[in-house]
Predict the structure.
Amino acid sequence: MEIINNTAPRIISLVPSTTKTICDLGFQDNIVGYTHFCIDPPNLHRNKTCIGGTKDPDIQKITQLRPDIVFINQEENTKTTFDELTARLPHTYLHLSQPKTIQESISDIQNIEQLLQVKSKNIWSQKLNDRFQNLKLKTNSKAKTPALYFIWKEPYMVAGKDTYINDTMKYLGFKNICKEQRYPLFNKTHLEEKPYILLSNEPYPFRKRDAEEFYQKYKTPKEFIHKIDGQLMSWHGTTISHFLNRALRKPFEITQPIF
């Protein structure tokens, strides 16, 4: 594991959930660059530079900021971005991650803690792991409800296997009935098991009118169409803490009927 021997590393994060994690670990003041999707914590943007989006960051601006570390995610960011930064910043450490499960995300937090030499009072990984084990004990033996998780409209896209969302779904008591990998296009065969329809508020912000449109087109019972908190379901890193709180105590706050 790489360790940065610098008590004040200059950090750029191209991953919104990792940006939050870095702040929670006590390194908000070290962040010099962020994307315009990095919305948490709300006060992040003071005296820092926005370097564009997650898919199309300004490489020149990143280079000019002279970072010691750049945090990148294989799903959020592109290979082109990684390759360009590798070429332009040969002495910068590029932390590349792609957690597809809660357990992998906790391991990634631990790696970041080691990388930044986080003080013991700010360590999150062990506490998160303890609470996650409690959630596993609580949910593993329970029957799962068939469900389909929508992330996009026009065209409709759903979360498939081999995704972080697929993992969080099962700890809310859902069985993801999408058998394809990653984020396939929705098709009518997905409805054969009569699943609950979970409409996320991000990246596409599904609203009641979208649910009404889906109902009119596919005649899914209205009581089966729910809204779901996309940030809790898809953000890895320390956001896991909020997911575990809700999943252990108030899972009904993560998903609620739309109608």
About this structure: The longest strand covers residues 145-152.
